[in-house]
């Protein structure tokens, strides 16, 4: 407050100047804070650019807009292979993005009736009738159920090697753990018959009804049909319902085309005659009889009559392919029926034209779990980044060791040299100082390649030494420290020496103790450079075991979408922020200013 | 205050250092370990993962004494990634460090350097074991010319082997977007004419600005040549031809090149208006991100076609695939074939490892593995995505009807007629140069004016003019044949320059010495020991000697070598320096650097001083504002860059904000030649404001209040106080900081690499500062010698500043703030 006059502070001009200064500072502050707010808001966003990704909102819409919340709920619920089509089918509309999802009109009674049906029947649903929500694992963004499944496996197996042995996998770490997505609308999709998949199916079945996402095959039927020109006229609006059996009239053609060539055959049921014909087709495909079939398909049937086409039997890829081909080629239309959640619902309510209120039911489930879902939206990116870093437990240890070594190095080697230069009468003092300072004349870039080669020749690559040693001493900081030590009154040393203090005590008890702030600043500098280094750290320590947090985050950043990157940035800036806020007084006191002698 | 006893203190120091040694010891390797550059994805239940697991198990069961690791310890899902050109430096650094993977990926552009520098083990003995038919199957002629090459010994050797062969630049298109744009999804464009009209129709079909649909996607910046070259080849053009003496010559100034460039300019720059009347330029999206095709609404893109095409969107019939469009009117062009090549690192530690590496390479494309792949595919219901002849071979004939015959035809045609992708030593540089020409063309005012006027003839003649100049320029610079007398003259100048440089360095050192001696204060009494002080200085001095002086000397020596990290570097005299000093691009980048430095001083250097003045004067809230302004510093530099990059995008918040004031830029700032430099500096200045002001704040406090009071009594106003009291008080600090900042800005490169990579190019990089050029020279072109020579020249340029700086430092003492 030295520039502003002391007299007349209350005058209008001075006040105006002060106000102007505040205005400038506040405007500046806004440019400082605004990007951070954008970043925080962005870190709550969902996956790649759907409803709230890649937008620039100051207030995250997921906190305020019910529609955005609901769309993200739907994104998570239907997140599976080709999920936009699957979500669209629930609405019976062809979606181009999840943002097409809307909040439906609610007929609560209808939904309650539907829920009653689910309560009664859902345990009998085969797995391909439904998805389980929040099983997403795309882009390393894990939903709650995925996390549950993963931690179940981790509890069961412990180290990853155990998991690899038990399930025949070759994962390098738990970060590689993933689960194949369901592809319910793909004709060829089946749940492979592997122990890992067994576990997954059991987990799915154990989730509560509200988390099971029943598929709308009627919607798929309708969306498939309307791609054809003859349907566009609207004349065949009845194709909104996929009937159990082939309907009469011109709709028959649509039904046949869909069921025969498009629908996953898991949804097709054969009656006794149909089954017999399938067995016969198997017998003709394998003229060597049941032994030949067992050998070819890796099955263990005693006779063809044991083939019942249960869900479990159809998890055998060979059997599934046989069945698939049978439907396409033989097409025993009189003896097959479609079995979907909707057909079961229509049976349940006893109406041929009832359509289950899929979306309305989704919405009511959403209403029940709204705020817990919103908090999941906020936390998810952070949880994923944090768990990613935690799995790489060495990252934290490496970073700590690296930082500790840097700080200790900065607080010993340079001060010792500076102390010697400051305290002792040496002929060479100024030669030595020149020796230290002249390093400033080198462009650092010249030494980059030779430095790397030197690290290699010393065998330091992939060790902490490679990280710490090259930057341990900087000439200018020896110079500055020496200058600072010079300002300590000589009498301090003299009287201490009279008291019989040794050189070590002089160094520690007096020189270092009296220079705490500047040392703190040096330590802080060492912390910052060790904490933020990534490029050179990666080059000289290419081994994953030696990576620090920043290198991991940097790697993570290269392949994540924006919102998760924001979360990673925020997490990584917490330590530096804390250090600054806690130490800022020390920092300010430690700053030294060059003054002309 | 409590003071720790010395022996415990010692323990604090010793323990972590011991720990360092201990942990360092852990990286001991198993005796027989095959190191791959990356491991394939094995995590899923899908056929790819299953097949990868099978291949790995197969290899391990046949090589029971081996373990397989990857050079970066990472699997496919965790591939090592780096921005821009830095990605390429990883493997080079690994080679330099002798820790390269045994099985190395070799890209076409760098293959010549890899071979000539001896990074690759000749594979002749292994290839000789393979029977001819199998060899012919695996290595089509277009790949063979790339793998079987003349080595440094002048003999032909096998250096690489393909693991997968692809047809480059085939046309992948979105059937759904075709339908949306009113085009027939079953009729992809076959000719350039159809292609152009498709691209136009598919760009926001309803002309509705809110629907951002693009007809086509092309790369930008120094990757601009990618799609361009594909088109060029369909027109029968080349960027390089090999003359009878085996030398490669650039062919920039040719008719096919001109035709292609005309098409390219029309696609990227033609003006059109949307429904709301806003003007847009170009029908294509220019974006380098991989997989952009799938995430944005882009109707067509060039993709490499692999033998096993399992793009997931095939399952829903969402995409179609066709050959790239040809300009029917002219003679037949050809598709391009590029193989994924693997070589064995010449520094492989054991012959058995080399053998295992070879086994691994040949396993990849073997029939045994193919059989597993086909089995997994068919079992998973993906039979129809396989090639018809593969299905036939393994007896899965029932899927033949459902396979997509067009795909197989495109692939087979590519294999039959395809030409090899460029693999000469200059092709990397030439691609970059071509990219610059392209960037220049689409940013050229005359071209754009003629295009807007609809004057195709003028567009063509202007482009022809640009190409002609580029041809001459490139011939001189990249393929430069300088006449011997000129060369001799240049050598003489270089030697003179070097003498000057050496003299300057020596003078500096002597001068420094004398300055420090002159300014030496009386030495403090007290210390009489002789050995101890030197013992205390030894660690620091040794460290500086080892990590700064020694590398400096070594780096200077490298500047006189044609440096090869595998050993056998040749002494080449001053020619590296000649190359630097007589390169116009170098001097242009020096100019760019000066611009950058000037702007840096203007924005980033003065900002903190101003902020400190404000913060010192306000009566309340100092600490609050101090923290606020420090906020950006808690992000790492990379974080700042990432954040601002998203702000600068075409539809980003900055353009939105300006839009509110009626300023419509509708460009991404980093791609605009005018704004790019400013865009790099804004975040730098932004992030440096808070941390930078701290030292000035501290310094302001050291100016005694009495001075101000005296000035006030003399009737000085605020302005006079600033100029007569404050600034003189800060003089030394400002001076020292200014020189430091100048030197720092002069050498800046990392941030610019992350932001623009030196572009946009018109044709010279608008932001290619000299530090970046140095990085490219070293790590992109592997010219360590030239890079070090460049660094020496830069050091020389900054010498004057350094001198002043050091003299200043000798005259100051450092005081703590309050």
Q: Which terms would index this structure?
A:
heterodimer; A: 597 residues; two-stranded antiparallel ribbon; 60% helix; elongated; B: 818 residues; alpha/beta; eight-stranded mixed β-sheet; two-stranded parallel sheet
Concise overview:
Chain A is mainly alpha-helical. Chain A is built from 29 helices and five strands.
Rounded to the nearest angstrom, the distance between the terminal CA atoms of chain A is: 26 Å
Oligomer: heterodimer
Main β sheet profile of chain B: 8 strands, mixed
Uncertain regions spanning at least 5 consecutive residues of chain A: none
Distinct helical segment count of chain B: 33
Mean pLDDT of chain B: 80
Describe the global form of chain A. Answer: elongated
Can you count the beta strands of chain A? 5
- Give the proportion of residues in helices of chain B: 55-70%
Count of alpha/pi helices of chain A? 29
- Determine Rg of chain B (CA atoms, Å): 31 Å
Mean pLDDT of chain A: 84
Provide an overview of this structure:
The complex is a heterodimer of chains A (597) and B (818). With 597 residues, chain A is an all-alpha fold. Chain A contains 29 helices and five strands. Chain A has helices spanning 12-43, 61-64, 66-77, 83-91, 108-121, 144-157, 160-167, 195-206, 217-225, 229-232, 251-261, 272-285, 290-297, 311-314, 317-329, 341-349, 358-368, 370-391, 393-423, 429-437, 448-457, 464-468, 475-486, 490-498, 503-514, 516-532, 535-540, 549-557, 562-590, and strands spanning 130-132, 212-214, 268-270, 336-338, 592-596. In chain A, the strands form two sheets. A two-stranded antiparallel sheet of chain A has the order 1-2. Chain A has a two-stranded antiparallel sheet with strand order 3-4. The mean pLDDT of chain A is 84. By secondary structure, chain B is α/β, with parallel strands linked by helices. In chain B, a hairpin with a 5-residue loop joins β8 (240-242) and β9. In chain B, α24 crosses α27 (676-702). β5 (592-596) of chain A pairs antiparallel with β19 of chain B.
């Amino acid at each position: 407050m030295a520039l502003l006059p002391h007299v007349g502070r209350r005058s209008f001009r001075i006040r105006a100047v002060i106000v102007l200064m505040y205005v400038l500072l506040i405007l500046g502050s806004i440019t400082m804070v605004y990007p951070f707010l954008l970043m925080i808001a962005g870190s709550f966003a969902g996956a790649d650019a759907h409803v709230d990704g890649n937008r620039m909102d100051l207030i995250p819409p997921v906190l305020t807009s019910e529609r955005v919340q609901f769309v993200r709920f739907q994104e998570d619920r239907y997140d599976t292979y080709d999920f936009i089509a699957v979500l669209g089918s629930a609405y019976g509309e062809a979606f181009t993005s999840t943002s097409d999802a809307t909040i439906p009109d609610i007929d609560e009674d209808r939904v309650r009736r539907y829920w009653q049906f689910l309560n009664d029947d859902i345990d009998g649903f085969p797995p391909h009738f439904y998805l389980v929500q929040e099983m997403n694992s795309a882009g390393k963004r894990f939903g709650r159920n995925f996390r549950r499944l993963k931690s179940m496996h981790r509890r069961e197996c412990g180290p990853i090697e155990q998991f690899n042995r038990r399930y025949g996998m070759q994962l390098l770490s738990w970060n590689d753990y993933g689960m194949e997505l369901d592809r319910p609308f793909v004709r060829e999709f089946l749940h492979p018959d592997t122990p890992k998949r067994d576990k997954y199916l059991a987990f799915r079945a154990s989730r509560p009804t509200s988390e099971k996402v029943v598929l709308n095959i009627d919607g798929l039927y309708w969306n498939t049909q309307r791609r054809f020109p003859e349907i566009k006229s609207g004349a065949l609006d009845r194709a909104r319902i996929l009937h159990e059996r082939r309907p009469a009239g011109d709709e028959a053609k649509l039904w046949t085309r869909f069921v025969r060539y498009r629908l996953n055959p898991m949804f097709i049921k054969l009656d006794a005659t149909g089954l017999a014909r399938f067995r016969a087709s198997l017998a003709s495909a394998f003229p060597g009889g049941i032994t030949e079939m067992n050998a070819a398909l890796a099955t263990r049937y005693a006779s063809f009559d044991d083939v019942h086409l249960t869900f479990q039997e159809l998890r055998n890829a060979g059997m599934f392919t046989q069945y698939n081909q049978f439907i396409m080629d033989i097409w025993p239309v009189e003896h097959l029926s479609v079995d979907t959640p909707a057909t079961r619902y229509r049976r349940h309510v006893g109406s041929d034209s009832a359509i289950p209120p899929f979306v309305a039911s989704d919405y009511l489930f959403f209403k029940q779990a709204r705020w817990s879902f919103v908090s999941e939206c906020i936390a998810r990116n952070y949880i994923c980044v944090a768990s990613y870093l935690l799995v790489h437990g060495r990252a934290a240890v490496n970073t700590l060791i690296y930082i500790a070594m840097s700080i200790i190095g900065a607080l010993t080697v340079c001060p010792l040299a500076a102390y010697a230069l400051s305290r002792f009468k040496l002929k060479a003092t100024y030669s030595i100082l020149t020796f230290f300072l002249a390093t400033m004349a080198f462009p650092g870039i010249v030494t980059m390649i030779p430095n790397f080669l030197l690290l290699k020749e010393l065998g330091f690559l992939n060790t902490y030494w490679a990280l710490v040693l090259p930057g341990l001493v900087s000439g200018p900081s020896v110079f500055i420290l020496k200058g600072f030590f010079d300002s300590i009154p000589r009498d301090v040393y003299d009287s201490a020496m009279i008291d019989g203090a040794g050189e070590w005590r002089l160094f520690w008890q007096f020189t270092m103790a009296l220079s705490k702030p500047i040392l703190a600043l040096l330590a802080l500098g060492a912390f910052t450079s060790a904490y933020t280094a990534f490029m050179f750290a990666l080059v000289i320590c290419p081994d994953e075991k030696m990576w620090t947090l920043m290198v991991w985050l940097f790697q993570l950043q290269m392949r994540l979408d924006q919102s998760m990157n924001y979360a990673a940035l925020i997490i990584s800036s917490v330590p530096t922020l804390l250090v600054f806020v806690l130490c800022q007084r020390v920092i300010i006191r430690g700053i030294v200013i060059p003054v002309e002698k | 205050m409590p003071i720790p006893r010395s022996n415990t203190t010692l323990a604090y120091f010793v323990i972590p250092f011991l720990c360092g040694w201990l942990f360092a010891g852990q990286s001991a390797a198993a005796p027989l370990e095959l190191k791959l550059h990356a491991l394939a994805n094995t995590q899923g239940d899908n056929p790819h993962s299953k097949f990868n697991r099978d291949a790995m198990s197969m290899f391990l069961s046949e090589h029971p004494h081996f373990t397989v690791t990857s050079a970066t310890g990472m699997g496919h899902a965790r591939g090592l990634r780096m921005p821009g050109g830095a990605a390429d430096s990883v493997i080079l650094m690994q080679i330099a460090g002798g820790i390269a993977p045994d099985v190395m990926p070799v890209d076409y552009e760098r293959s010549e350097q890899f071979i000539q520098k001896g990074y690759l083990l000749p594979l002749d003995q292994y290839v000789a074991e393979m029977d001819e038919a199998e060899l012919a199957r695996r290595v089509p002629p277009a790949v063979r010319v790339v793998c079987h090459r003349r080595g440094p010994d002048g003999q032909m050797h096998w250096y690489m082997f393909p693991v997968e062969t692809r047809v480059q630049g085939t046309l992948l298109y979105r059937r759904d977007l075709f339908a949306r744009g009113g085009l027939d999804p079953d009729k992809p464009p076959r000719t350039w004419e159809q292609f152009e009209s498709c691209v136009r129709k598919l760009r926001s079909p309803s002309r509705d600005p809110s629907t951002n649909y693009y007809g086509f996607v092309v790369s930008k910046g120094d990757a601009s040549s990618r799609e361009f070259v594909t088109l060029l080849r369909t027109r029968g053009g080349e960027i390089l031809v090999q003359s009878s003496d085996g030398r490669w010559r650039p062919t920039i100034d040719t008719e096919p090149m001109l035709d292609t460039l005309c098409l390219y300019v029309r696609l990227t720059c033609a003006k059109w208006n949307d429904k709301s009347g806003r003007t847009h330029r170009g029908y294509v999206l220019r974006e380098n991100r991989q997989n952009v095709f799938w995430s944005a609404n882009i109707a067509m893109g060039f993709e490499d076609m692999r033998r096993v095409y399992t793009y997931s969107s095939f399952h829903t019939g969402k995409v179609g695939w066709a050959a790239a469009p040809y300009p029917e009117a002219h003679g037949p062009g050809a598709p391009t074939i590029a193989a994924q090549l693997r070589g064995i690192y010449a520094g492989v530690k054991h012959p058995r490892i080399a053998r295992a590496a070879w086994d691994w390479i040949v396993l990849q494309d073997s029939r045994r593995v193919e059989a597993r792949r086909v089995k997994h595919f068919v079992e998973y219901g993906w039979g129809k995505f396989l090639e018809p002849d593969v299905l036939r071979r393994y007896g899965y004939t029932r899927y033949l009807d459902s396979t997509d015959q067009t795909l197989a035809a495109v692939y087979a045609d590519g294999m039959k007629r395809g030409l090899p992708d460029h693999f000469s030593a200059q092709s990397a540089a030439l691609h970059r140069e071509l990219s610059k020409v392209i960037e220049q063309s689409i940013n050229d005012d005359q071209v754009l004016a003629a295009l807007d006027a609809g004057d195709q003839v003028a567009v063509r003649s202007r482009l022809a003019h640009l190409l002609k100049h580029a041809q001459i320029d490139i011939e001189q610079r990249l393929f430069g044949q300088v006449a011997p007398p000129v060369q001799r003259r240049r050598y003489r100048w270089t030697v003179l320059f070097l003498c000057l440089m050496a003299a300057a360095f020596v003078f500096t050192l002597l001068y420094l010495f004398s300055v420090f001696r002159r300014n030496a204060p009386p030495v403090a009494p007290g210390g009489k020991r002789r050995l101890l002080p030197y013992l205390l200085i030894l660690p620091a001095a040794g460290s500086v000697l080892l990590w700064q002086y020694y590398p400096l000397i070594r780096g200077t020596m490298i500047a006189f070598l044609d440096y090869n990290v595998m050993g056998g570097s040749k002494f080449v005299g001053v020619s590296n320096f000649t190359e630097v000093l007589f390169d116009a691009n170098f001097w242009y980048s020096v100019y760019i650097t000066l611009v950058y430095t000037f702007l840096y001083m203007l924005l980033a250097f003065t900002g903190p001083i101003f902020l400190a003045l404000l913060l010192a004067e306000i009566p309340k809230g100092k600490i609050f504002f101090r923290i606020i302004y420090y906020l950006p510093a808690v992000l790492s530099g990379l974080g700042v860059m990432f954040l601002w990059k998203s702000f600068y995008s075409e539809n980003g918040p900055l353009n939105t904000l300006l839009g509110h004031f009626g300023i419509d830029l509708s460009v991404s700032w980093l791609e605009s030649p005018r704004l790019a430099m400013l865009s790099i500096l804004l975040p730098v200045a932004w992030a440096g404001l808070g941390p930078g002001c701290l030292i000035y704040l501290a310094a302001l406090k050291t100016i005694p209040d009495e001075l101000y009071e005296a000035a006030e009594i003399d009737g000085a106003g605020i302005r006079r106080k600033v100029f007569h009291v404050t600034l003189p008080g800060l003089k030394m600090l400002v001076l020292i900081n200014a020189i430091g900042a100048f030197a720092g800005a002069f050498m800046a490169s990392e941030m610019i690499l992350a932001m623009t990579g030196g572009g946009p190019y018109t044709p010279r990089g608008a932001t290619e500062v000299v530090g970046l050029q140095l990085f490219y020279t070293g790590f992109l072109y592997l010219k360590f010698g030239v890079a070090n020579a460049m660094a020496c020249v830069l050091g020389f340029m900054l010498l004057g500043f350094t001198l002043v700086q050091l003299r200043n430092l000798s005259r100051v003492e450092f005081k703590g703030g309050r």
